[in-house]
Specification:
- By secondary structure, this protein is mainly α.
- The chain folds into two domains: 114 residues, no CATH class; 70 residues, no CATH class.
- It has eleven helices and two strands.
- It is elongated.
- The two termini are 32 Å apart.
């Protein structure tokens, strides 16, 4: 997975420009050697392949989901699928995150990739909903989190997403207590709509430089 010998396109040209090579868009032996040298100098695995980690290190100014990374991602092949063929069906901001997701979660076959994208699309209204809907009524709060809203407590939280998330996700998953509002700051913002409301996850993502502008990380968006 990634840009390597045999790859072609704008993503390769961008890499070549970064390395001071002639930007012909063809990833050949010369480009591979230059990539290995650059990776070694940066303390990365010098395999000559520009995967998500190397791309992110080369272009830290380009936020995940931004045009530069999207170009690189669409030049990549993941699980046997050329990501560029998904353009127009999957938003570029999501496409740009697929290589890193695939690497981390072993999405290493076309079937797994299909299941992953189908799940994301189903849970996010066709990849349009990018954060959890927390606008619960009192009845909804009691039904969903009965232990956190005993008695009439739900009445004081109904239709107030910030208060709801702060209580429901506060004091666990690495978040501070309810008063810290970490539960809301680090609420789920992912196409999978699974519970990625962990402060430690945001910290890991930020340390890798790609949490700044994730609109969806699977990877979780940065705190608001």
């Amino acid at each position: 997975m990634g840009l390597q010998v045999g790859s072609r396109g704008d993503g390769v040209k961008k890499i070549q420009g970064k390395l001071g090579l002639r930007a012909d868009g063809i990833f050949g032996a010369g480009t591979e050697e230059a990539v290995k040298t650059w990776q070694a100098a940066q303390g990365l695995s010098a395999d000559g392949i520009v995967g998500a980690a190397t791309w992110g290190a080369m272009f830290p100014e380009a936020p995940a989901g931004g045009p530069a990374l999207a170009v690189g991602a669409m030049s990549m092949t993941v699980a046997g699928v050329q990501l560029g063929t998904l353009a127009g069906h999957v938003p570029e901001a999501v496409l740009s995150q697929i290589p890193l997701c695939a690497e981390k979660f072993q999405i290493n076959s076309s079937l797994r990739l299909a299941h992953f994208l189908a799940q994301c699309a189903h849970e996010s209204g066709g990849l349009k909903v990018t954060q959890e809907n927390l606008n619960y009524s009192a009845e909804g709060l009691q039904r969903t989190w009965p232990s956190r809203f005993p008695g009439n407590l739900a009445e004081a939280y109904a239709r107030q997403p910030e208060k709801i998330a702060s209580r429901v996700y506060g004091g666990r998953l690495g978040n501070g207590d309810e008063a810290s509002k970490d539960g809301y700051k680090f609420r789920n913002r992912s196409p999978s709509q699974k519970r990625l409301v962990r402060l430690d996850i945001y910290r890991v993502r930020s340390s890798h430089g790609y949490a700044r502008a994730l609109p969806t990380h699977n990877l979780g968006a940065p705190p608001a």
